[in-house]
Amino acid sequence: MDSETNHNDYTHDGTLDLRGRPAIASKTGKWKACAFLLVYEACERMAFYGIASNLVVYLTTQLHEDTVSSVRNVNNWNGVVWMTPIIGAYIADAYLGRYWTFTISSLIYVLGMVLLTIVVSLKSLKPSCTNETCNNSFSLQIGLFYTSLYIIALGAGGTKPNISTLGADQFDDFDAHEKELKVSFFNWWMFSAFLGGLFATLGLVYIQENLGWGLGYGIPTAALILSLMVFYLGTPIYRHKAKNLKSPTTDIVKVVFTSMANWKLKVPNESRKCQEVQPQHGITSGKPQENEPSNFKFLDKATIKEGSSRLPCTEVQVEKTKQVCGMILIWLVLLIPSTIWAQINTLFVKQGTTLDRHIGTHFQVPAASLGSFVTLSMLISVPIYDRYFVPFMRAKTGNPRGITLLQRLGIGCIIQIAAIAIAYLVEMQRMHVIKVEHVLGKNSLVPMSIFWLLPQYALIGVADVFNSIGLLEFFYDQSPDDMQSLGTTFFTSAIGVGNFLNSLLITLIDKMTGKNGGKSWIGNNLNDSHLDYYYLFLFGLAILNMGAFVWASNVYVYKKEAKVMQDEDDYYAK
After folding, report:
1. pLDDT at 546
2. What contacts 14, CB < 8 A, 6 or more positions away?
3. How many whole angstroms separate alpha carbon 535 and alpha carbon 425?
């Protein structure tokens, strides 16, 4: 490091360069560092959505799976992709740090993509299988396909939580200017992800169905490799959080077990006094809570000095545990919205395959391409939200974000309810056309344009501007400082569990409604099913869940925000 560097030019949040030296504020971080990360994020999202958007079609047309099985397998894979970040984030927070965890995981990701590209380039053996040898070869082909998918899921576990938190680390929360820049970070981070997703749903999906699956997967594989090269070019200017000296979950486990051991004891009045503060509620308040969290008072028992053989916990450890418990509460009421989101790459796509997809005489829109309208609506909405909505609401509320994090999530949930209501109405119209036109065959085309599905896709996109971006920002912002990689996995795991929940619901409903010769709501022949009933069921769940969300938001207490350094000389004098 330059010996002439003034200590006032160091970052105030204790970030370091890759060699462990204090980061120089003027030479590192901010948007110039994030630019390299945004390139990777766009290419990785292109690779992911290039697989996820059309996976249900590949499974049914190339591997010849039935509707319920293909939807279940897509949901299960998506669930694993969004759940493995818990492992990757824990390794980063407890052992390797974000940069090195990302590096190792990205190589695993690329390995999976290369293997997947090779497998899908092979011709499907199923139609020609007439003997045991051929059937065994086809089983091997399926096995390699799913192996490559889950290698990708493993790699994503270390890249998803760490690339976004590494990006957020490039802004110093103790610097007024950088803190203001960070307000927009997650909006533009997701904007780059949407660009990658848009290319996948518009370009890659068409290439896969018309020019070949190998080419359709080979392009994002090459792009991912190139983006990694770009990522490493930015290494000299990245800022890194100091490595934890112990596992960040140790304090939480200690507080939980100590409070349980002391469950019969009462917290002394002097200890309770500092905890009893008036909470600022999430939905109704425009400002974060300035006091320490006062919910989950049972955990205060962990601070009792007598009565347990365990050493008492500090108030800092207890409040850290309360923060995590509060996040779990919000996480629980976001599972149903994540289940609704899971329809984009499953039932919405299968619904689209039954409709008229022609534009003109010769061109046919791939059903999965309608997912691009989710992305388009997000790309249009993000700049409007960031440049117009936030400043307008900031002037009204005085909140730097315009509205609170939970208000943002609540608006997204409401829009999502409207989207699933419209999906129900459109499916009712499809069923009406089927009845009038006597369309009964499994592969029969319903004389109704696929563009009837556009409103539900577009509304899901607008909802995601509030929900997906809000979720990522909420869990990063509200996580304890030494758990921010792990904290963002609340975001990914909510989506993952939502996919698993959707898989479970579809399996149970198919078995319950299809038993004893009944008509399944989600049968292999969607033209002779009742998908409208399933959408109505999801709508009811979403309404009930909205009530639970409002309750959880009003009992949630925000994490105390870091104070901006006003006088740098005073800071270094301490």
Report:
1. 96
2. 22, 241, 242
3. 9
Q: Rounded to an integer, what distance in angstroms lies between the CA atom of residue 334 and that of residue 405?
A: 13
Distance between CA atoms of residues 289 and 405, nearest Å: 12
Instruction: Please choose, from the candidates 35, 50, 34, the residue with its C-alpha nearest in 3D space to the C-alpha of residue 152.
Output: 50
d(CA 123, CA 62): 9
Question: Is residue 390 scored above 80 in pLDDT?
Answer: yes
| CA–CA distance, 349 with 554 (Å, rounded to integer) | 37
Q: Which of 36-40, 511-515, 554-558 has the lowest mean pLDDT?
A: 511-515
Taking each helix axis from N to C terminus, what angle separates 484-514 and 132-168, rounded to the nearest 10 degrees?
Answer: 140
Q: List the structure tokens of 262.
A: 């002391």
Rounded Cα distance, 41 and 394, in Å? 29
DSSP H stretches of helix in 169-298:
176-182, 185-199, 205-210, 213-233, 250-261, 269-273
Q: How many C-beta atoms lie closer than 10 Å to residue 524's C-beta?
A: 17
Assess contact for 319 and 416: CB atoms under 8 A.
Answer: no
The three-state (H, E, C) secondary structure of 467-500, written as one string: HHHHHHHHHHHHCCHHHHHHHHHHHHHHHHHHHH
pLDDT of residue 216: 93
Q: What span, in angstroms and rounded, lies between the C-alpha atoms of 56 and 61?
A: 9
- pTM greater than 0.90 (yes/no): no
Q: Where does the pLDDT of residue 129 fall: very low under 50, low under 70, confident under 90, or very high at 90 and above? A: low
Angle at the Cα of 213 (from 211 to 218), degrees rounded to 5? 100
Cβ 220 vs Cβ 46: under 8 Å: yes
Q: What average pLDDT does the segment 480-509 reach?
A: 83
Rounded CA-CA distance 556/330 in Å is 8
How many other C-beta atoms are found inside a 10 Å radius of the C-beta of residue 205? Answer: 26
* Helix, strand, coil share of the chain (percent; to 5): 70, 5, 25
- Report whether pLDDT(449) > 60: yes
Describe the crossing of helices 531-555 and 405-437 by its angle, rounded to 10 degrees: 170
Q: How far apart are CA 568 and CA 212, in angstroms?
A: 59
Residue type, 386: D
Mean pLDDT of 247-254: 79
Q: How far from 5 is each of 83, 215, 237, 280, 567, CA to CA, in Å?
A: 43, 51, 16, 43, 18
| Cα-trace Rg, the chain | 25
- Token pair of 523 as six digits: 């049968």
User: Could you say which of 1.10.10.10, 3.30.930.10, 3.40.710.10, 1.20.1250.20 is the CATH number of the domain covering 7-244+333-555?
Assistant: 1.20.1250.20
Domain layout of the chain by residue ranges = 7-244+333-555, 255-323
Residue 559 has pLDDT above 70, yes or no: yes
Beta bridge partners of 446: 355
Using an 8 Å Cβ cutoff, are 476 and 489 in contact?
no
- Least Cα distance to 371 among 446, 453, 293, 441 occurs for 453
Contacts of 464 (CB under 8 A, 6+ apart): 341, 374, 378, 412
